[in-house]
Structure to design on (249 residues):
């Protein structure tokens, strides 16, 4: 069940989240979003479920979610209607999740390039963005009310949840609304401001990281972002541009 009244009491957007498609159970909210796009769907529509069965992360990795405890949703955008920079969608979404969590729960989280949401160097959320034609779908998954025992053993040592962090249950609808408020707010900001805000929330700025790109591992100091969102890695005094891989800190 989705509590619309609770959600709407926290939502302050003009477009995003004004149309909600709730699924009692779904393979993937991104998949449901693309099915809706085949019809005549309103830009800003959200697909959400409290039982995501087969969520997918970046690079095709499985996204583990716990029924009625995780927040799993997708946002449908149309570049002809929404004034968006697709190259920065991942950064905008990450900032919005972190800011939305802070505003509703007062929990401070951070960002790991390119799109991981982190607390105490453990992952609580991730973002998957898919684009086809004029449409983009932003899939977001966040560990909210899970206990340690709820977390899949395969990821338990590298993951956490908001409840594990502060020992309090969180209303999923209210948290969702706060995140959507921030997403719409940051879509109206210029690229320079987005880059600056993301770097402020980055947990590994000016720290040594390992960059994994396929089978290649590179060590260097993470120095920041280019205007298009690519990472800047300083390797033995020389800046190298990185994209499309994964980093470890």
């Amino acid at each position: 069940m989705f509590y619309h009244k609770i959600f709407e009491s926290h939502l302050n957007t003009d477009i995003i989240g004004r149309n909600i498609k709730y699924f009692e159970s779904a393979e993937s909210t991104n998949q449901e979003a693309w099915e809706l796009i085949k019809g005549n769907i309103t830009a800003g529509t959200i697909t959400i479920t409290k039982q995501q069965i087969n969520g997918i992360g970046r690079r095709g990795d499985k996204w583990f979610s716990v029924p009625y405890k995780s927040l799993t949703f997708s946002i449908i955008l149309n570049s002809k209607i929404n004034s968006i920079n697709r190259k920065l969608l991942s950064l905008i979404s990450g900032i919005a999740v972190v800011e939305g969590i802070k505003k509703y729960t007062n929990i401070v989280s951070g960002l790991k390039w390119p799109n991981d949401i982190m607390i105490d160097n453990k992952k609580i959320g991730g973002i998957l963005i898919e684009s086809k034609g004029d449409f983009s779908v932003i899939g977001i998954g966040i560990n909210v009310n899970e206990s340690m025992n709820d977390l899949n053993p395969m990821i338990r040592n590298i993951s956490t949840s908001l409840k594990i962090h502060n020992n309090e249950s969180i209303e999923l609808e209210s948290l969702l609304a706060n995140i959507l408020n921030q997403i719409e707010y940051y879509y109206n900001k210029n690229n320079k401001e987005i880059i600056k805000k993301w770097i402020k929330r980055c947990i590994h700025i000016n720290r040594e990281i390992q960059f994994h790109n396929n089978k290649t591992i590179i060590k260097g100091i993470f120095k920041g972002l280019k205007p298009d969102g690519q990472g800047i890695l300083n390797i033995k005094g020389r800046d190298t541009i990185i994209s499309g891989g994964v980093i470890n800190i």
Remarks:
- The chain has two domains: 4-201, 208-248.
- Residues 208-248 form a domain with the SH3 type barrels. fold (CATH 2.30.30.100).
- The chain has a mean pLDDT of 91.
